[in-house]
Design brief:
By secondary structure, chain A is α/β, with parallel strands linked by helices. Chain A has 14 helices and 41 strands. Chain B is an alpha+beta fold. Classes of the chains: A alpha/beta, B alpha+beta. Chain B: InterPro entries: Adhesion/Biosynth-related (IPR050904), FAS1_dom_sf (IPR036378), FAS1_domain (IPR000782).
């Protein structure tokens, strides 16, 4: 027992109890005010406090002319007698929320379950106005009934009252217990760290999560990446608490969410860095500069997970050292190769959901950057935010402001600071799930259009450079977003190639850019990203007519800022009009072409067609690869016995489609097409997938394509 | 002497408040402006609970020492320190580290340049147990890196070198004391603010 400390508290309480009625004429502590008491001039009125997990939303009626407001909190006992010192825990400023008519402040940092008094006062200029009448309430205890198995699980962070973060061993034990006690949860190991720590993912659905990654993908899942920088652990603790809520809560909202999708939570992608409290992994690599390059096993594991589970939306959790930022800086994928639809939908999630809900609940969501933040939030495709966008996933960065800053003056106390950060992340991830639930059709529409846009190899290629994040209308919740970051001329390639060709050495050669100077081959990394590759006589061809067209050049073009190899640009072989039959042997790339006649592929040939119209049947038998993006085939499309990739995306076929006996191993893509006629798939070594982008088929769907 | 007087005043005040009856006088009192922000009373990680802990265990509970704690583990100096009869750890707070080193520099030290890291940490450890009072009475201390650092009184705290001051002093651990200080010691260049530490 720390004798002196408790003494100080006792004295403070005593002083407060003695003097408070004198210094504030509205009588703070004892009896509630009579209901008819008239407000003093400039006194805050209509104070309400509502409780949520780890925070209390304080709301009031604004005072005309107020520059800001101070939120005061005092610990009280069951009889509302003060047991602690009245403390200003929050400062509300107009840039905090998009609507100033109904100010709110999410008070957090306290140990959940304790009882408090709250008061709020305005300041006009710097002059403090009278405090409001007090409101007394008990905050919500940590989620979960202590008497109910599963619900009663607690993390190390919770049991130590935030004095310690949850260790790796405690995380594994906790998630294993959640897995064991909840039918809704499956914990899967998606990979291992450099030091061989398991990287786990919680797969959560109702009543049980779908059995396979492909079955999960069919539910349009959402993914939360909780801890990439080992020394930024606040989001991870939120993820662990959220996993328990999802696993054991029986409220209608939770069940409604989980009946319709699957939640993917990776608590610790950087387990080695978390254990060591370093930003990077054990090689010193910042993993959030590696999601495109996947030199490290941690990022490679995450990217393979994305390939297999195909989340349609994501959040990536961080902490941010800029103490002038809002509570929750957020940012969409800005890289200009990200499809416009993904950027727009991500920005919609941030501005039209997070800013709006934040203003209701009192959290200050804002654009990443803010004052002194011009060097952050840029276009590196190595950052998960951008990598996800280039994979057509609606997503946002999430930062938790590291320090209390000027608006939360009581966070010198480390535990208070940690709790505010974690519960603000918990709020955000819950809002993220709600957004996904409510806007899934919009998200899927954006994703589908983005995939079709990319597979059409449309537009210029930008290697580095961002879309501008327009300033939100005043009152802007942050002072400034990240800087413009437009691409410089040397980062633009106006004439996009059709494909990149890699030599045997480039594709399968040993690499030295991983841990201990050993890196996975480009072939292995391409497989991890899930790109389609055609083996040709003198190398390997990666066509851009596929969903990750925005990402491929950044890694295979010599003009890239951080590429793997300098692949050979392969340009279209036909861009104009061709009248009469077209027989293809070897490699053909049709871009913006018009073919008036049938197209036949000889055995071993490869066809890549984007923005092309073919008036006539297309017949590919024993081809090496077939790629259609954003094209039209006026006639039957027959693709059989291909010994390589098959992908048909965003293409109109006026006639029957027959995909049979293709034996590449990976699933053929048949996504976002319109077919006037029957669609038949049979005998393919892996059933074709529509990547959750539905086809419109005016005819029966049969065989392996019966549900596409 | 001033400290004792204050204690008397506080006990008197406490007696007036009528709260002393069942509390034992503490043997693990910490003092300093930052102590109020750290686990206290019967909270997990309170100073009394740490008094019998080894240095590595105790540091895991002092919430402003996450950087120092991680650095000490990374340095692999823990067995050496636990083997010593008595030590004093002058542990810079997380804020002190943040003001001193960039993220990249810290990772470099903790992951790749462990010899430098050990030198840095040895500059924060003394080979005997020194209380706050001992530090205030001393003229200098010699740290494990061989450096002699002058110490002096600074109000109720101790000044260590030219810049550092104890901000929460007198944590007892199994074989000595831990004092939280507000500046990083040693002769390392300041790199804070350099490099890319955005998301």
């Amino acid at each position: 027992m720390n004798h002196r400390r408790s003494t100080v508290i006792a004295i403070s309480a005593l002083l407060a109890a003695t003097f408070a009625p004198v210094v504030t004429s509205t009588s703070a502590f004892a009896a509630p005010l009579p209901a008819f008491a008239a407000a003093e001039p400039n006194q805050v009125t209509d104070l309400t406090v509502s409780q949520a997990d780890g925070f209390a939303t304080v709301a009031w009626t604004p005072v005309p002319g107020a520059a800001d407001y101070q939120i005061e909190r005092t610990a009280v006992d069951a009889a509302n007698a003060p047991t602690g010192t009245p403390t200003v825990v929050g400062v509300w400023r107009p840039n905090r929320q998009i609507n100033n008519e109904t100010p709110t402040f999410a008070d957090a940092g306290f140990n959940p379950g304790t009882r408090f008094q709250w008061r709020v006062r305005a300041r006009i200029g710097t002059a403090e106005q009278p405090y409001s009448s007090p409101v007394f309430d008990t905050t919500k205890a940590p989620w979960g009934d202590p008497a109910v198995a599963g619900q009663n699980l607690r993390t190390q962070w919770e049991t130590t009252q935030a004095a310690q973060y949850t260790s790796d061993a405690n995380e594994y034990a906790y998630t294993a217990a959640v897995d064991q006690l909840s039918e809704r949860v499956r914990v899967v190991e998606i990979g291992r760290t450099v030091q061989n720590r398991p990287i786990n993912m919680l797969v959560i659905g109702y009543p049980t999560p779908p059995a396979t990654p492909a079955a999960v993908a069919a539910t349009s899942p959402l993914a939360v990446n909780c801890n990439v920088h080992g020394n930024e652990p606040g989001d991870r603790e939120a993820c662990l608490i959220m996993a328990r809520q999802l696993a054991f809560s029986n409220d209608a909202r939770t069940l409604g969410l989980l009946k319709n999708t699957t939640v993917l939570i990776v608590p610790t992608i950087n387990g080695d860095g978390r254990a060591a409290n370093t930003r990077g992994n054990t090689t010193g690599q910042d993993l959030n500069r590696d999601y495109s390059l996947i030199r490290q096993p941690e990022t490679a594991a995450y990217v393979r997970m994305l390939r297999d589970y195909r989340p349609v939306a994501g959040y990536d959790g961080h902490e941010y050292g800029n103490n002038q930022a809002g509570d929750l800086p957020m940012l969409p994928p800005r890289h200009q190769n990200v499809a416009q639809q993904i950027f727009d939908e991500s920005l919609d999630m941030i501005e039209n959901h997070m800013y709006v809900e934040g203003a209701k609940d009192g959290w200050w969501a804002c654009p990443y950057g803010c004052a002194n933040g011009s060097g952050v939030g840029l276009s590196e495709e190595t950052i998960l935010r951008n990598t996800l966008g280039l994979k057509n996933t609606v997503n946002s960065l999430l930062e938790l402001r590291s320090s209390g800053g000027a608006t939360r003056p009581d966070e010198g106390n480390t535990a208070n600071n940690r709790r505010r950060k974690t519960f603000s992340a918990l709020w955000t991830f819950n809002q993220f799930m709600d957004y996904h639930h409510n806007q899934l059709s919009d998200i899927k529409k954006a994703r589908g259009e983005a995939i079709e846009f990319q597979a059409g190899n449309n537009g210029r290629i930008v290697f580095r450079g961002s879309r501008v994040v327009p300033l939100h209308p005043a009152p802007h919740p942050g002072e400034a977003g990240p800087r413009e970051d437009l691409p410089t001329p040397d980062m633009i390639l106006d004439n996009a190639p059709c494909a990149y060709k890699l030599t045997e050495a480039q594709y399968n050669g040993a690499r030295t850019d991983g841990p201990n100077d050993v890196g996975a081959t480009v072939a292995e990394r391409i497989a991890a990203h899930g790109w389609k590759v055609v083996k040709v006589a003198d190398g390997y061809v990666v066509p851009l007519a596929q969903p990750e067209r925005g990402l491929i050049p950044l890694l295979l073009d010599e003009q890239g800022e951080e590429e793997w190899v300098s692949g050979e640009r392969v340009y279209p072989t036909l861009t104009g009009r061709h009248n009469g039959p077209l027989t293809i042997s070897g490699f053909a790339c049709l871009s913006g072409a018009t073919v008036n006649g049938p197209v036949n592929l000889r055995p071993g040939a490869t066809l890549v067609a984007t923005n092309t119209t073919i008036s006539g049947p297309v017949n590919a038998a024993n081809a090496a690869g077939v790629f259609f993006g954003d094209s039209s085939v006026r006639g039957p499309l027959q693709v059989a016995n291909t010994n390589g990739p098959v992908t048909v995306i965003g293409t109109n076929v006026s006639g029957p489609v027959n995909l049979v006996n293709n034996t590449n191993g990976a699933a053929p893509y048949f996504a976002g097409n319109s077919v006037s006629g029957p669609l038949n798939c049979a005998g393919n070594s892996t059933a074709p997938t529509n990547l959750e982008v539905r086809n419109v088929v005016n005819g029966p769907r049969a065989g392996q394509c019966s549900t596409l | 002497m001033r400290t004792r007087l204050l204690a008397v005043v506080m006990v008197a005040a406490l007696a007036v408040a009528g709260c002393t009856s069942d509390e034992e006088p503490s043997t693990a009192a910490v003092s300093g402006p930052l102590c109020g922000e750290l686990p206290k009373g019967d909270e997990p990680g309170n100073p009394t609970a740490l008094a019998s802990e080894s240095v590595d265990q105790a540091l895991q509970w002092i919430t402003v020492l996450t950087t120092f704690e991680g650095a000490l583990r990374a340095s692999e100096l823990v067995p050496e320190l636990e083997g010593k009869k008595a030590i004093t750890v002058l542990a810079p707070s997380d804020d002190a580290f943040m003001a001193k080193f960039s993220q990249d520099n810290l990772d470099e030290l903790m992951i790749k340049d462990k010899d430098a890291l050990r030198t840095l940490l040895r500059a924060h450890i003394v080979d005997r147990s020194l209380s706050l009072a001992d530090l205030r009475d001393a003229d200098s201390v010699t740290t494990l890196d061989g450096t002699t650092v002058k110490v002096s009184e600074a109000d109720k705290m101790a000044r260590i070198g030219d810049e550092a001051t104890t901000v929460c002093a007198d944590y007892r651990i199994a074989n000595g004391r831990v004092h939280v200080i507000n500046h990083v010691l040693g002769n390392f260049p300041t790199t804070a603010g350099q490099g890319d530490s955005g998301h």
